[in-house]
Design brief:
The structure is a homodimer. By secondary structure, chain A is mainly alpha-helical. The first copy, chain A, is 68% helix and 0% strand. The first copy, chain A, contains ten helices and no strands. In chain A, helix 6 packs parallel to helix 9. The relative contact order of chain A is 0.12. At the A-B interface, helix 8, helix 9 and helix 10 of A face helix 8, helix 9 and helix 10 of B. The first copy, chain A, binds a DNA duplex through helix 3.
Chain lengths: 185, 185
DNA sequence: GTGTCGAGTATACGAATGTTTACTAGCCGG
DNA sequence: CCGGCTAGTAAACATTCGTATACTCGACAC
């Protein structure tokens, strides 16, 4: 007895690889690296657990691949620099609420036990978030200010995970906007 | 051959309990709940690993006990309310740098896999940090502003863990002060 | 048709974890 | 001095994890 969805699926290496990648992205975003097992990923992708090792070398390899594919937060950075704090606040509020796209950041905040994973996460955080953001900022010490903004982002994710999602109010967004303005100044 | 420190130590239930508690506090603060094993705690306390279960029921029970004993961050809240942002910033900067006292927060940001642990952490965060802080704040919506401040704190810890400790400059502290002022307004 | 290559599978392995259990030995009251 | 309570110990247990391995079976070339 095979699972219903697995019945007579054409054998397609690339498609299976994509299913694993997709399942891994969602699970890592939800539970963090250590909160996910390769068995969970394989089950969600309706694939055999050995294929993770075959296609990605290891669980860590799959994780790195997920982060590589993840579109950066760059879209938030694009556009009118003056509106950046507001966009950051709205993005963060959305993130606080539901985080439908579940991007890189949510995965970052919880993954750190293994030093190898920590290195992967650190590089990705630097290259995909802090550096692009710092490049946008005029004035002195853009790195430090970019780190500060990222700090708030990370904190929001962790708070959301701890306290549960809360519907952000208009006042929340306004407050966050002010904080980001202050952080970017 | 026993370990050097264990040689001929008087059998003292309370003292051993305290050693375990102390070792657990330091390790949990450093590595988070899931990054610490019962064997690590027992080794650091120079005690037998079975005593954790005997004295605290379980690893989770020990963790809860650690959080219960942990002095709250309340001292930062005491004193002149006008100076609160600055004190928060200095405390956070210290935390960013070395965190010598390693209080509750550092343990919070990483511990969440098990729902039981998550509940323990959530309650403690609410009762020992957010509520006392909110009680200090005049004006509307003190809860939301207290959460925002806590968010920055949590984020700082995670960033520190990911990017490594960095020596905070005067400008960093000034910037943080401004951010906290904004968040508390 | 049939042989071969590779996608997919089932199972096992070794390590690590929290917890339990049966045991040992030190101290204290009598 | 000695008997019993108990702190402390050693070993094992059951699970779970990531990974490795030996296998099956379907599709395409010839």
């Amino acid at each position: 007895m095979r699972t219903a969805t697995a019945e007579s699926r054409p054998r397609d290496r690339e498609a299976t690889r994509r299913r694993l990648l997709r399942a891994a992205r969602e699970l890592f975003a939800e539970h963090g690296y250590e909160g996910v097992t390769v068995r969970m990923i394989a089950a969600a992708a309706d694939a055999n657990l050995a294929l993770v090792a075959r296609y990605f070398g290891s669980k860590a390899g799959l994780f790195a691949e997920v982060l590589k594919d993840e579109p950066s937060v760059r879209q938030v950075f694009e556009g009118d620099p003056a509106g950046l704090p507001r966009r950051l606040a709205e993005y963060a509020a959305l993130r606080m609420h539901s985080d439908p796209e579940s991007p890189i950041l949510r995965s970052l905040e919880r993954s750190a036990g293994d030093p190898e994973i920590q290195a992967i996460v650190r590089d990705r955080l630097r290259n995909a978030v802090i550096e692009p953001l710092a490049a946008l900022l005029p004035g002195p010490d853009p790195q430090a200010r970019a780190r500060l903004v990222t700090t708030v982002f990370i904190g929001i994710g962790t708070m959301r995970r701890l306290l549960g999602p809360e519907v952000p109010t208009e006042a929340d967004v306004d407050r966050l906007t002010a904080v980001f303005e202050q952080a970017l100044r």
